[in-house]
Amino acid sequence: MKASVIGSGTWGTALSIILSHNGHDVTLYSRLQSEIDEILKEKRHKNLPGAVIPDSLCGTAKLEEALKDKDLIVLAVPSIYIRATAERMKPFIRQNQVIVSCAKGIEEDSLLTMTDIIEEVLPQADVGVLSGPSHAEEVSRFIPTTIVAGAHSRKTAEFIQDIFMCDCFRVYINPDMRGIEVGAALKNVMALAAGMADGIGYGDNTKAALITRGIAEITRLGVKMGCRQETFAGLSGIGDLVVTCASMHSRNRRAGILIGQGKSYREVMQEIGQVVEGVYAAKSGLQLAKKYDVSMPIIETMNQVLFEDMSARDAVKTLMERDRRLENQKLDFLY
Question: How confident is the model over 47-104, as pLDDT tens digits?
Fold first, then answer.
């Protein structure tokens, strides 16, 4: 297959390595020719230690060249750049072109998922999503990883599955595209919270509480939005949440640690040096909670920490002192 990966960050590069490993003809695109030249010359990516760029990988800084006559286009730019990138791609996308989104986020104000945006800008495309617990640092070194592909049709989902699946990258399929994307976006906010607790110096009990109550919040919202509850018990739900909250590969967790140590989100984003998706997802998550009238106390509190100068310790205290309640509102006592 001929595949193109739009975005030469860590995730786009890792997926390029997997696709090349699978024997496909792969082109990696960056707007910066110097970035492509460095990757191809050094056979390394500066943020993927231990990963080796295959000799077969091609690169370009010309968008038309990257998109022409491709069986699959992988869109792997940060969520805040998805709309602008799709607009630039518009002149070169043919009818029924398969595009798979690998960004994790929800657009602020419009509250569209990434595939919603792509379908709005590129209505002629056949759009899918690839998501799950998959740090680029490990995928690029062929560490066994399991992920999920979603699409409107089984045919497209299986097409994506077949192209990506190999001995180190197992791909399941799921028709619930929106559920996959809601879980993927909002777990980043929970990872900020988990990292924040680490930065304060709290322990495993606190992290377990945030992960468990975090997936409860995400599931409540997702079901209200028409998603399938089962999706949030899967790879793009609890799977992605666990790996993002627990790993130092996670830039959202690392950012949360710095916030817990007293830094502002602006200072943190400058220090991390990469896009911290959870900061943007916190705003859109709160907007969704209000739109669908869903209780999301962790999302709400993280917005207060990020944008209203609430301290990390006060945030945890606020969550711990909420009114007592049932663990699950669908359960009740016999008497």
Answer: 999 999 999 999 999 999 999 999 999 999 999 999 999 999 999 999 999 999 999 9
Token couple for 258: 């710095």
pTM (2 d.p.): 0.94
* Rg, Å, the chain Cα set: 20
Note the helical H segments in the chain. Answer: 10-21, 33-42, 63-67, 82-89, 114-121, 136-139, 154-164, 177-200, 204-224, 229-232, 240-246, 251-260, 265-272, 277-291, 297-307, 312-320
Q: DSSP character for 234?
A: S
**CA-to-CA separations, 275 to 81, 104, 278, in angstroms, rounded:** 10, 11, 9
Q: Strand 2-6: give its sheet, edge to edge.
A: 58-60, 25-29, 2-6, 72-75, 98-101, 126-131, 145-151, 169-174
Per the CB < 8 A criterion, the answer to whether 197 and 206 are in contact is yes
Q: Does residue 193 sit in helix, strand or coil?
A: helix
187 assigned to active site: yes
Q: For residue 72, give the nearest of 114, 113, 30, 128 by alpha carbon.
A: 128
Closest CA to 56 of 29, 22, 90, 99: 22
How far apart CA 199 and CA 305 sit, in angstroms, is: 14
2, 43, 104, 187: the active-site residue: 187
